[in-house]
User: What shape does this take?
Amino acid sequence: MSEENKISRNRLHGLWALTNRDLKKWYQNPIVFLIGIIQPILWLALLGKAMNMSSIIPAGIPGLNPSMIIAKTFGTPDYFSFMAMGMVAFTTVFTSAFVGISLVFDRRLGFMNKVLSTPVSRSVILISKVISASIRSVFQAAIVMVIAYIMELRLGTNFSVFSVFGVFAMVFLIGFGLSSLFTSITLRTTRMETPQAIFNLVTLPLMFASSAYFPIQNMPWWLQDIANVNPISYTIDGVRRLMIFSDGYGPLLKDFAFVGLFAVVVTGICIVLSWRYLNK
Amino acid sequence: MSENEDIIKVEGLTKIFNHSLVAVDHIDFSVKQGEIFGFLGPNGAGKTTTIGMLITILKPTEGAASVLGNDIAKQSLEVRRSIGVVPQEYTADEDLTGYENILLCADLYGIPRSISKKRALDLLKLVELTDFKDKRVQTYSGGMRRRLELACGLINRPRVLFLDEPTLGLDVQTREATWNYVKTLKKEFGMTLFLTTHYLEEADALCDRIAIIDHGKIVVIGTPTDLKDSLGGDIITVAIQKDVDITDLISRIEHVKEVKKENGSYFIKSANGEITAPLIIEALRKGGQVVTKLSLTKPTLNEVYLQYTGKSMRDAEESRENVFRQRMTMQRARR
Assistant: This one.
């Protein structure tokens, strides 16, 4: 067989090469790696531990049991655990948003043009970014869980070894969806400011119109409506159900279905856009 | 495909950005097998846009082009498989080694590792980077980076190689070394090369044929020699001791086309200056004149450029993105 015949005609060729390039940039850079670990520590230590909800309910009043109220509101007896699991899902937002910046960088440095001139499928170029961001998200989620555990995370009775893999699966799915979203938005952008501005605009509502810090049922009705279509809420609910809740898995399947659907739809849109818009 | 068939064929190719900016305006040309064809023009003339369309990363607004018989719009995947591209920018990943970078390029072409490892080593040898193959690209000089880009562009054994500003930002020595690599490709592999440049010397030293492009239009196409000859040949400047008019005497000499007297010197146009100059001296001596000064000037591409565009090479308006990319390239080249 001649050499030319061995050349891959597989439409997915180059996927791992490009994914691995992005991953290498991450794990071979000690500073980026270290910040990825320090950041969740800060979030958990500063916000998670400072918001000591049980202390604001006065103890000693007959018929008023602080930890019962907390448990009723948050589904777990301490706020830190509630919030920490929110952070597990939320680090994915930060990690995914980085895709936009890396895409703009590749465009500006000419790497994108180089790749576009090779027979790599247009969708593979984008999906490689999405996959690398999803893998990073899973790693980040693992770090947050370890740190939370060290900071005395209270596991629920739902917890089993498989829960950890469930969380990873959940984070991978939402990571896929979110990075596809950010990729689609920054597809044609050549300006560095754009992905940053979009990121700032999008993160705040994503974060607070979800159950990351507060339970949805206590929000005003209009915010509840938003939070109920926010895929982050479903991710967080799934993660909590797997890790810290004690009242059974309940709507876990629904959580997975919703996040999965979100990922499939947004990735689909991203692929279609790549055919149409990646070449100018 | 037969030997004589055009490797690149372009007809009425046009690119208009945002419905208003005409970057390339109905250009026609063809590139033959084994030829080094150069696009010469100032920044913003439409060189990079043309190359972008030919390597299928830009969609033409109008017109058609084929590379190795494949239509750039309809058979873009076939085009991408068969061509090599060396972009203007340094696209190699700084965090990876030279060897890893070439392997990455190979992966993008779907070349299995069993083949690409050997090819990568051969190419590193060709561009004389074998000793640095396991060093990170970060540590490479501008010339080394350019050679690495060249090696990457050759990984799929292309029959035609596109080079966009191959020596942008390089110093004179490195530039000449790069030209030698390009010439080797033509000589040893019979490769067809299409390159863009805004350096006149580069077009002159490298290209078999040049297309001068200005404001998105091709002004003239020809070999460097033909283009220079089209200006009417060499200029011989002569001065003599005595203040007498020798215009008639010179006009009768073989090859002389035109004689002009200005400030006591005679400017003589000739198709072949080297032969004419001794004849002039001889004729003047016989006529009893003493020659005090004589010089011979060959026309350069600069004069050609001036003749056809009516101006010297200047920088046209550039997009923000291109300016940024060029600046990045220059910065890296000088490290």
